Amino acid sequence: MELTYIKAINSALHEEMQRDENVFVMGEDVGELGGAFKATEGLLEAFGEERVIDTPISEALIIGAGIGAAVLGMRPVLEMQFADFISCAFDQIVNSAATLRYRHGGRAQCPIVVRAPSGAGIHGALFHSQNPEAWFTRVPGLKVVAPATAYDAKGLLKSAIRDNNPVIYFEHKRLYRSVKENLPEGDFTVPIGVAELRKEGADLSVITYGGTLAPALDAAKIVEKEDRLSVEVLDLRTLLPLDREAILATARKTGKVLIVHEDRLTGGIGGEVAAIICEHAFEYLDAPVRRLAALDTHTAFSPPLEEVILPNTNKIVDAIRNLAAY
Amino acid sequence: MAQPEGARVATEPAARVEQELQLYYWMKLIRAFEERVSRLHRQNKIFGGVYSGAGQEAIVAGVCAPLRDGDFVAPLHRDLGVFLVRGVDPGRLMAQLMGKETGLSRGKDSFLHGGDLERGIFGSTSMLGSSLPIAVGAALKFKMKREKNIAVAFFGEGASSRGDVHEAMNFAGVQKLPVLFVCENNRYAYSTPLEKQMAIEDVADRAEAYGFRGHVVSGNDLLAVLEVTERVVAKIRNGEGPALIECKTYRYRGHSEHDAALYRDQEELIEWQSRDPIPGYELFLEKKGHDLKRVREQIDERTQKVVQAAVEYAEQSPFPKPEEALEDLFAPALAAAPKK
Ligand SMILES: Cc1ncc(C[n+]2csc(CCOP(=O)(O)OP(=O)(O)O)c2C)c(N)n1
Q1: Do B125 and A74 touch (CB under 8 A)?
Q2: Distances (CA, A) of B148 to B235, B266, B331
Q3: Consecutive H or E run containing A316
Q4: Starting at the edge strand that comes first in sequence, how are the strands of the sheet with A204-208 ordered?
Q5: Quick one: DSSP state of residue A108?
Q6: Are B236 and B182 in contact (CB under 8 A)?
Q7: FRET label pair with A307: which of A216, A324, B11, B307, CA 20 to 30 Å apart?
Q8: Residue nearest (by alpha carbon) to ligand 1 atom 12
Q9: What is the pLDDT along chain A (326 residues), one digit of tens a residue?
C-alpha cells in the first residue's frame, strides 16, 4: 500500500495501539484535531479519550506524566507539537527519564517515546525549524532515531514503542507529504541502532540521515552522471547509539567520507561520526573527513537567508566534487 | 492566613491503639535514623548531599500512614522517613546513603534518588518540582486502569515556584486525577525566606485556581496531619479528584549538612523546637492512658537496635565494582508480549 511518511507514522500508531492496550498517546491537540500535522488522525475515534489525551500547553507535564505512567507499565507516545518546544521539557527527558533506570539500580524502566516533528525547509523560521537532536545524542540512557523514509518512519516508531527505554523519535516535517512509498502489509519493524546502506559506491561515502538523505541521493546521482563518481550513501537512521560498524565499513571501503546533516555544524552528530572514523579507520583514509551541515547560525526566515544556511543538493554536489578531487 | 484544619481526634476505635504506637515508633525511628546519618556524615562515612528532615517527621508519618500498597509516592529530598514508613529495609537505605552495592540504586546515585518502585517509592531527581508531573502520570495510569490507588507528591514551598508544579497541578485538576499534593512549608528554601518566594502566605491558596481544594494543617501535629490526610485520601480514592495539603513546619538543621543556617534567627528555631512533633504526640499518648515512660524506653531501645543494625549492614556491604559504572543504563530492548 502506498503511504506518505506521515501516514506511515499514523498507521504505526494505530497498529501499536491495537496491538497493546498499554500504548496511549498524549500531547497538544492530538485528539479531535489529530495533531498539528495529522499524525494522530483517527486515533480518538478508534481508541477514545482515555488513550488519546489532549493536554494543556505543558511540555514538561507531557513528558513527566508519560514517565509516571511508564514506570507503572504503560507505553506512552508523547507528542511535542514541534521539536522546537522540546526545550521546555528538556529536564524531564535528560534528567527524569534518562537517569531513571540507572538511579533505581536497574530495578525500573521508562518505556516512553517522544515524537518530535523537526526540521527546516517549510519557512518555519527560528522556532519551527530546529533540529535539536544533538542536545540528546550525548545523553546516556536515551535512544535517538531519525527516519528518512516512510518504511523507516513506520518500522522505527514500532520499535521505539516496543523498546523498554526512552526513545526520542525525530520525524522530519518536510518529509511528511513529500515522501511516499509502497509499504508491505502487516507488521514489520526496523531495529534501533542499525544504519542502512541506501546506495553502494566505490569512490566516496556520504553519511547522512533524516532530511538530508534525499538531497544526498540526488547529489550522488548527479555526480555519477556528470563526473563518473561512484558514491556510497549511508543512512544512519539511529543517532544514539550510532551504528559504528556500518560507519567504519563504508569509511574503510571508500577512504573518503562526507558527513551531511541539516542540524548545525558545531556540536552536530557529524563531529562524533568523524571522530569515530578518525580513531578507528585512519589508515584507510585518503582525505580528511569532511562535514556539510547548516551554518552555525539560527534558521533564519527570509528565503535568501534560509537558502544560504541550509544544506541542499547543489551544496552536497559541490562538497562531493571537492572531496573527490582531494 | 487560613485556619489550620484537623481537630484533634477525640475518640478512636480500639483498633487505633496499635496504630498510635506505630506512628510514635515511626517518628522516633526517623529521628534516630537521621541523627545517626548526620553523625556518619561528620565522620565521612556518608558523603555527598545529606538533607535532614528533623522537625518534619510528623508530616511523613501522618501522610504515609493512610496509604496502601500500590499507591505511588514521590518523596522530596528531605523525606527519608517515607522510605522507612513504606517498609524499605533500613539496612538497604543506609547502604544507599553510603554508596554501597546493596543500596537502592546500587551505588549509582546518592541519598534519596534511588527509589524503590516495589514499595511504590519513586526516586526523584534533584530537580525540585520535577516529580510532580511524574506523580500526576502515575495517577493518570491509575485512572486509565480503574485502579483504586492514588499518587502522592511531596514538595517544598520553595519548589512550588517552579513551572513543573503549575503544569502538574493544572493537568491534575483538568483530568480530576487521583493525586495528593503535599507541601512541606518549612519557611525557607535554602536561605531564602518565604516572603522572598511568594506574595501570599499559603501555598494551599493556589489549589483553588486549579479546581481543587487546598488544606492548611500544622505539620508539627501528627494527629492533625493524619486526620486531614485520611479524610482527603478517602475522597481522592473515591474519584473526587486531586487535593493539596500544606503542612506548616520548620526544619531544625541547615539546608544540608554543610549549611550552618546562619541566615535564620536563633529565637525562631527555639520557638519552633518548642512545638516539636514528638513531645506533642507524647502528650497525646499519655492522655490516652499509655505508660509513656515505659513506651518511650521500649521504642528508644527498638529504634537504636534497628539503626545500629542498619549501620552494621551498610558498613559490611561492598562498594560496587568499577565495571558496574556502565550497567543499568538500559533495560533489555524488547518489550514483553503485550497485554491485550
Ligand atoms: C530546580 C532546582 N533548583 C535549585 C536546586 C538547589 N536546591 C536544592 S534544595 C533547595 C531549596 C528547596 O527548598 P524547598 O523546596 O522549600 O524544600 P526544603 O529544602 O526547604 O525542604 C534548592 C534551591 C534544586 N535542587 N533544583
Answers
A1: no
A2: 11, 46, 28
A3: helix A313-324
A4: A196-199, A231-235, A204-208, A257-264, A290-294
A5: -
A6: no
A7: A324
A8: B189
A9: 899 999 999 999 999 999 999 999 999 999 999 999 999 999 999 999 999 999 999 999 999 999 999 999 999 999 999 999 999 999 999 999 999 999 999 999 999 999 999 999 889 999 999 999 999 999 999 999 999 999 999 999 999 999 999 999 999 999 999 999 999 999 999 999 999 999 999 999 999 999 999 999 999 999 999 999 999 999 999 999 999 999 999 999 999 999 999 999 999 999 999 999 999 999 999 999 999 999 999 999 999 999 999 999 999 999 999 999 99
Interface contacts A/B by beta carbons within 8 Å: 172
Residues A11, A159, single domain; the answer is: yes
User: Within this chain, do residues A27 and A68 fall inside the same structural domain, yes or no?
Assistant: yes
Domain ends where: A182, A204, A230? A182
Residue B318 has pLDDT above 80, yes or no: yes
Q: Name the residue facing B331 among A50, A64, A165 (closest C-beta).
A: A165
**Ligand 1, pocket-test mutation among B34, B79, B112, B128, most atoms within 8 A of CB:** B128
Residue at grid coordinates 537517569: A99
> Which member of A56, A73, A111 has the closest CB to residue B171?
A56
Query: Do A24 and A101 fall within a single domain?
Result: yes
Tally of structural domains, chain A: 2
Among B77, B190, B264, which is best to mutate for testing ligand 1, by the most ligand atoms less than 8 A from CB? B190
What three-state secondary structure class fits B302?
Answer: helix
Is the distance from the beta carbon of residue B183 to the nearest atom of ligand 1 less than 6 Å?
Answer: no
Residue A188 within any structural domain of the chain: no
Q: Model confidence over B14-49: pLDDT tens digits?
A: 677 889 999 999 999 999 999 999 999 999 999 888
A95 and A213 co-located in one domain:
no
Residue A276: give its domain's CATH number: 3.40.50.920
Q: Which residue has the cell 516512510?
A: A150
Distance between terminal CA atoms of chain B? Answer: 51
DSSP string, B106-124: TTSS-GGGS-BGGGTB---
Q: Is B156 in the pocket of ligand 1 (CB under 6 A)?
A: yes
Look at residues A152, A182, A212 and tell me which one is the last residue of a structural domain. A182
A230 belongs to a structural domain: yes
* A298 assigned to active site: no
pLDDT at B9: 47
Q: For residue A32, give its domain range.
A: 2-182
Quote the ipTM score: 0.95
Q: What does the pLDDT read at residue A198?
A: 98
pTM over 0.90: yes
From the CB of B128, is ligand 1 less than 6 Å away?
yes
Q: Is the same domain home to A206 and A138?
A: no
Residue window 136-195, chain B: list those with CB within 8 Å of chain A.
Answer: 136-141, 144, 151, 163-164, 167-168, 170-171, 174-175
- C-beta of residue A242 within 8 angstroms of C-beta of residue A272: yes
In terms of domains, do A69 and A171 share one? Answer: yes
Question: Which stretches of chain B are DSSP H helices?
Answer: 16-42, 57-64, 80-85, 90-97, 131-144, 163-175, 194-197, 205-209, 222-237, 266-273, 277-287, 292-316
Cα-to-centroid distance, B291 and ligand 1 (Å)? 41
For B319, residues 6+ apart whose C-beta sits below 8 A from its C-beta are B99, B100, B101, B107
The letter for the amino acid at B58 is: A
CATH number of B7-188+199-324: 3.40.50.970
A170 and A248 belong to one structural domain: no
Answer yes or no: is pLDDT of B64 > 50.
yes
Whether the CA torsion A311, A317, A318, A320 is positive or negative: it is positive
